[in-house]
Amino acid sequence: MSKDSIILHWLNASRSQRVVWLLEELKIQYELKFYKRNAFHRAPKELAAVHPLGKSPVIEVVKEGGEKTVIAESGHIFSYLLRHYDHDNHLSPTDPDEKEELDYFLHYAEGTLEPFLVGVHVNEIAKKKAPFGTKFLMGMLVNGINQAYYTPGVASNMDFLEQTMKKQHEKGNKYFVGNKLSAADIILSFPVNSNFFANKEQADSIVGTDISKKWPHLKEWCEVIDKEPLQIQANSKVEKWESSLSQSVL
Ligand SMILES: N[C@@H](CCC(=O)N[C@@H](CS)C(=O)NCC(=O)O)C(=O)O
């Protein structure tokens, strides 16, 4: 086991949870620093002291000699941790084509898929927060934007992932890359599972259909990763830590 240790700056209800799962899989020593979203669902200003953009996840890598490196951006955090700590290729394939696929998904999750989901999410907030008397107009406006841009974007990405997973299932594989769990499944767990399939009612209404019937291979994959032991462990560790902290710390 490496002597380095990692500090993960974790924000509630955020993408940072999948980094906890990654750290558990890689068996790296880590410490969590908790940050709680404010009333506007934004990160508290303390996160900006770690990295100027004030977003989560962000990690600090503390080397054996004490020097620290700050790494931000999920895909970068994933590739850094894999490069430095996945010595036995537990989460990264050895086959060159599969390595490229993994690399693709590490970029794709935040670079292409997530912006569509964030757009839909922001529009949902806009509808809820519209001042009294403007809700109807706001609803028309954001539904129009969703129909023209975000919903087709979400749907074409889910179609793409469904086809990828269908091909994997036809080969007898349960995961996105090769025949075992990889970091691709972990990075995709947030947009595909936590954001979309785990919010089925909202997702059904956004795309106007039953998402489990439209994308059955993705649904099956969500069921597989929901049972991953170290994801379950990561979630329950965070729940315990959260409940043991006082509100003023969190
Ligand atoms: N592309 C970045 C996105 C980071 C990001 O937007 N994080 C959200 C949490 S899911 C955040 O910090 N939001 C709080 C805010 O913007 O104030 C990544 O993957 O790390």
Q: Would you give an account of this structure?
A:
The protein is 58% helix and 9% strand. It is α+β, with helices and mostly antiparallel strands and 250 residues long. It folds into two domains: 5-91 and 232-244, Glutaredoxin; 96-231, Glutathione S-transferase Yfyf (Class Pi), Chain A, domain 2. The longest helix has 36 residues, at 135-170. It is globular. The model has no long low-confidence stretch (mean pLDDT 94). It binds glutathione (GSH). Glutathione is lined by residues 11, 14-15, 42-43, 55-57, 73-74, 110. This is glutathione transferase. Keywords: Transferase. Belongs to the GST superfamily.
List keywords for this structure.
9% strand, transferase, 2 domains, single chain, Glutathione S-transferase Yfyf (Class Pi), Chain A, domain 2, 4-stranded mixed sheet, Glutaredoxin, binds glutathione, 250 residues, Glutathione_S-Trfase, 9 helices, alpha+beta
Strand and helix map with partners:
Elements: E1 5-11, H1 17-26, E2 30-35, E3 58-62, E4 68-72, H2 74-85, H3 96-129, H4 135-170, H5 183-196, H6 200-207, H7 211-214, H8 216-226, H9 229-244
Parallel strand pairs: 1-2
Antiparallel strand pairs: 1-3, 3-4
Helix pairs in contact: 1-2, 1-5, 1-9, 2-3, 3-4, 3-5, 4-8, 5-8
The structure holds glutathione.
